[in-house]
User: Fold these one by one.
Assistant:
Number 1:
Amino acid sequence: MRKNIVAGNWKMNNDLDASIELVHELILATDNIEIGYTRIVVAPTFVNLQKIREIAEGSRIEVAAQNMHQESNGAFTGEVSAEMLQNIGINDVILGHSERRLYYNETDKMLAKKASKAIGNNMNIIFCFGELLEDRKSENHFSVVENQLKNGLFHLTAKELGFVVLAYEPVWAIGTGETASPEQAQEMHAFIRSLLSSKYGKEIAEEVSILYGGSVKPSNAKEIFSKPDVDGGLIGGAALKADDFLAIVKTF
Ligand code: PGA
């Protein structure tokens, strides 16, 4: 059975003290709540990853990186490799976030390499994709998403797909306060699962968790997560406050 996941992407927020405080609050609050199959993930900035992972050890909170480079080492100033992450005990990484695509020119081709590299190192990935506002306005959102998946991910084998969680994040809903309606999310998630099914078969498609991201908050999480093909969320702004993030986690 596929898992529900609530992942908090802290982006370039929270210095070390704030990160420690937040993760402590999350650990305490999730210690003994009934949340069944739900995985809870946080993604702090690189410099705080090791500390936060050490603090979260043995708790319900898993720790992921926000990005990584596709090469193992070399002259790539400012970058971090899969091996370096694993060396500090990090085995999960977010790839292809729209901010990486938009501000750092990450392409589907580059992301295909990053995905292969991470999975080749037995790392789990949260693979993000989603259309721009103009794509939706021109009703191209399905083909944009299809291309992002085909070019960035569908080179993986069925076995490799076992390391992948998908995160559909319509760019127009990220950090804007505007959310896809539960129906819009379900429509796209069902489409994504049908793409997975045609490529990998129905049984495998049913096993892949597909998260929704884009202005998820305590007030709308329950309705969005109640949709059959929505298996949780990738949360930005609302992941920075323990109470909000926990309220979202508890909707499952
Ligand atoms: P948001 O960000 O929840 O602040 O819209 C979501 C994301 O970027 O993953």
Note: The pocket of 2-phosphoglycolic acid is lined by residues 9, 169, 174-175, 213-216, 234-238 (CB under 6 Å).
Number 2:
Amino acid sequence: MIRRILTYPDPELKKKSAPVTIINEKITELVRDMAETMYDAPGVGLAAPQIGVHQRVIVIDISPKGEKPDLIVAINPVIIHTEGNSYEEEGCLSVPQYGASVKRHASVVVKALNLAGEEVTYRADGLLAIAFQHELDHLDGILFVDHLSPLKKDIFKKKYRQLVEQSRVGE
Ligand code: NI
């Protein structure tokens, strides 16, 4: 089922998510809905709090459009190692029509559980490393725009308000 994606400044997006304690049918269903919602949007990643579920679950698929899907499901993900720096433009399904460059680690090692409850380790760089950091942030109530300098965040807020008003006029 495609769920509604919450958008900034919804306060639900600022809440910290709780670890998954048991991987049951509910979690399987949540992951299925999250993947469906992400592919429909379309986006390269989605975190459970973006659909209003405050559990530490993320889905990512960075495979190029038109190619075979390559879905990553990470439950209770933790970054255990980071290296280097990157500064790339990001966007977010919860902050539609806005993009900005954000400072991240260039590569990360992430430990998580898969849907079978097995521990999986991902060594990621490039877009996948950024996607992991971006989605993990969501689990702690952090949006990519929260990484902007105070001045840039101010500009974002003004620009975003205008964008929202414009899109309302168009409705
Ligand atoms: Ni996002």
Note: Residues 150-169 form the longest helix (20 residues).
